[in-house]
């Protein structure tokens, strides 16, 4: 006669399937814990990734801007909020004379018009000096093999338009020569052109555009600076501000501090939510599992009577808990990843921080840590009910299960 | 009429697809943002037309959910599943390919409406495929 002894896997699976609402609720608890924890990692990691990529794209150790427009200069980098602010280009020579500076290149920032027929999009135009630029010129050399020609532009990753198509700004047509990789910063919403083309565009805007652009030849918006190897950027920044009054030197340290400050309230809130959910969920799951084990006394008694050892019962209840925790954790992580990835632009503009979804290896690291946390929580929650159930004697368990 | 999980899900998804572009993550015209011509005429932007198309898709999806609740035969249920899969696909294609959204990536339609419609469309496809596959 064939043996009808149920398999370990079959028992675990049937136990979960027979209690669908309880299993779903437990799964949801672990999904919430894992989802909120991994969201915190994604938020911090995405901001750091965007900052690293964006600052390396910029290639500068600091940005020197008019003191009154320091926050707007930061906004151009962080969020790409279009701005126009100007000061005299004589600043560039003064900056170059400061001790500790190896390279300095001027840039012109111009905000295009929104909802105007003479401008395709409201974006940030950045005019560069091709002879001194170190922001996009290295990219042009490696990707295009040549500098920008007259009325050619290099666009950020979020600007719509194929390479070779036309964009119109202040009535002048420009051809897209190339597209930069995503950085998650305001550079994705920027259009780089030769400063000379920006001045010519401004001169012609009186006839061609809805509104004249007030930009004189020689005016610039900022100076990007690279410090000499071994020099402390903060010390060089102090020297610049002391020797050239009316300027502010924004180093990457300052940008990091601002991003951290803006991010801290959101990330602290997520950590608190994760902690509260974990503190409430894990004991709740332990209680529900204990109650479930108590209801299964008769079943456990029968299994023991059929020859199942204490270790078998212990492993069965523990594995059920671990399985639900694993599936719930995976579900929470997947849901969080999809939501954060889909809404990363909204996250960046709402929190006013740069954001670029972390690279795949780093993401897998976060996922692994979170899954381990969820599985550990599931194991801890199942330990007590697994232990008490395994200690039940068969007769006692069947008798108490029938009461 | 038996209240099934899949039928109820399709009704909820249909309602969400209808509401998303107008109330949950409204498109640009709900914020007073229009395209302006050289003569000063205000025009509805592509996101507005996508929102109108999603009204139709969401309504048909909700109707499919209702039919699924009352469908008795497996063939009828499978047919509803196939139609719902197509509707979920259109929910994704309208904002991305067929009509599209605004060019400016910081517009509300690109930040909130588009990803939400894509997610809702993807979930609709998964639920509908389950209806087709389930015996």
Highlighted features:
heterodimer; A: alpha+beta; 11 strands; 58% helix; B: 135 residues; 4 helices; 71% helix; elongated
Characterise this structure.
The complex is a heterodimer of chains A (403) and B (135). Helix content of chain A is 58%, strand content 14%. By secondary structure, chain A is of the alpha+beta class. In chain A, α2 (20-58) runs antiparallel to α12 and α10 packs antiparallel against α12. Chain B is mostly helical and 135 residues long. The mean pLDDT of chain B is 91.
SSE inventory with pairings:
The complex is a heterodimer of chains A (403) and B (135).
Chain A: H1 8-18, H2 20-58, E1 62-66, H3 70-78, E2 87-88, H4 90-96, E3 101-111, E4 124-128, H5 137-144, E5 152-155, E6 166-169, E7 172-179, E8 190-194, H6 195-208, E9 219-220, E10 222-227, H7 233-243, E11 247-251, H8 252-295, H9 297-305, H10 310-342, H11 344-351, H12 360-390, H13 394-402
Parallel strand pairs in A: 4-8, 5-7
Antiparallel strand pairs in A: 1-10, 1-11, 2-9, 3-4, 3-10, 5-8, 6-7
Helix pairs in contact in A: 1-10, 2-8, 2-10, 2-12, 8-12, 9-13, 10-12
Chain B: H1 5-24, E1 35-36, E2 42-43, H2 46-70, H3 74-98, H4 108-133
Antiparallel strand pairs in B: 1-2
Helix pairs in contact in B: 1-2, 1-4, 2-3, 3-4
